[in-house]
Design goal:
This protein is mainly alpha-helical and 334 residues long. The longest helix has 41 residues. It starts with 39 loop residues before the first helix and ends with a helix. Strand 1 and strand 2 form a beta hairpin. It is 72% helix and 4% strand. The N terminus is likely disordered. The protein has a single domain, classed as Rhopdopsin 7-helix transmembrane proteins (Up-down Bundle). Belongs to the G-protein coupled receptor 1 family. It is found in: Cell membrane. This is Neuropeptides B/W receptor type 1. One of its GO terms (molecular function) is neuropeptide receptor activity.
């Protein structure tokens, strides 16, 4: 719910609004909405951008889910995690039209249950992508280490990947529960808004919520992933210097490259959002049209991640392209 209109003062009930909350002061501390009419250029452009993200995301992620579930060759450990990434992105793009409606109507007409549900789905999108990428990084590390030692990872099975995926969903569910609890309908200037309503002192709770998201949704998983990939590269470098053995075959190199690229794109899309949290916590920024435009851009960039991954799979994974073409041919012939 990105009902980001003209920004000037901070309403106490809106102080906790985060990503997908119906508060106009999404990113910056000390903001508020004295004006319910959005800047005309943004009011036109934002729904168009969100609609494109929705259409592309639904098409691409549906294709990924279909290929992985239908093609026998796609049933691998890595693809189980990719499947769950696609499901998380698909879920988010399915509810994006509700965010667009909220934005255009300048109010929340769907009731409190839908408010809690949509905010929960939006938070799933925020946390699930980075956690599944962290699990994929752990998987890549284990594969590389095992290959260097000429061993097999005995517990790296299709069933284990399913259990690990369920574990990620359970962890993310626990993480986002507070957001569902605080998501409520608040009337602002006669208009119902879906926002986070925190207890007193609201400013303290707002800061705690932003730090909570920053740490659990970015700092901890990204640090873990960086450590894993640094250790992986260090091991490969030592192997190159001290051994003539072939550590990784081409297939494993391609999978590792694909995971790295997906991670890099995720960080590219989400880092500005989390950096804006740091800015919101440390700086009081005047609400100029430029700042508001940057806020819209950061929001759109984070949403864009939900539709980019399918193109990465198609570009980097030969087996995905071949399986997709085969399924299309089968569908056409039938």
């Amino acid at each position: 719910m990105e009902n980001l209109s003209s920004l000037s003062e901070l309403n106490s009930s809106c102080v906790g609004a985060g990503k997908a909350a119906g508060c106009q002061g999404k990113f910056w501390s000390g903001l508020n909405v004295s004006d319910t009419l959005p800047i005309p250029n943004f009011y036109i452009a934002v729904p168009i951008i969100y609609s494109v993200i929705c259409a592309v995301g639904l098409t691409g992620n549906t294709a990924v889910i279909y290929v992985i579930l239908k093609a026998p060759k796609m049933k691998t450990v890595t693809n189980i995690f990719i499947l769950n990434l696609a499901i998380a992105d698909e879920l988010f793009t399915l509810v994006l039209p509700i965010n667009i409606a909220d934005y255009l109507l300048l109010q929340w007409p769907f009731g409190e249950f839908m408010c809690k549900l949509i905010i929960s789905i939006d938070q799933y999108n925020t946390f699930s992508s980075i956690y599944f990428l962290t699990v994929m990084s752990i998987d890549r590390y284990l594969v590389v280490v095992a290959t260097i030692k000429s061993r097999q990872v005995a517990y790296r099975t299709y069933r284990a990947a399913k259990i690990a995926s369920l574990g990620v969903w359970a962890l993310v569910t626990l993480i986002i529960l507070p957001f569902a609890v605080f998501a409520k309908i608040h009337t602002e200037q006669g208009r119902p808004q879906c926002v986070f309503v925190f207890p007193q002192p609201e400013s303290l709770w707002w800061k705690a919520s932003r730090i909570y998201t920053l740490l659990l949704g970015f700092a901890i998983p990204v640090s873990t992933t960086c450590v894993l990939y640094s250790a992986m590269l260090f091991r490969l470098r030592r192997l190159h210097l001290h051994s003539h053995a072939k550590a990784l075959d081409k297939a494993k190199k391609r999978v590792t490259l694909m995971v790295l690229v997906i991670l890099a794109v995720c960080l590219f899309c989400w880092t500005p959002y989390h950096l804006s949290t740091v800015v919101a916590l440390t700086t009081d920024i005047p609400q100029t049209p430029l700042v508001i435009g940057i806020s819209y851009f950061i929001t759109s960039l984070s949403y864009t991640n939900s539709c980019l991954n399918p193109f990465l799979y198609a570009f980097l994974d030969d087996s995905f392209r071949k399986s997709f073409r085969k399924l299309l041919d089968c569908g056409a012939s039938s």
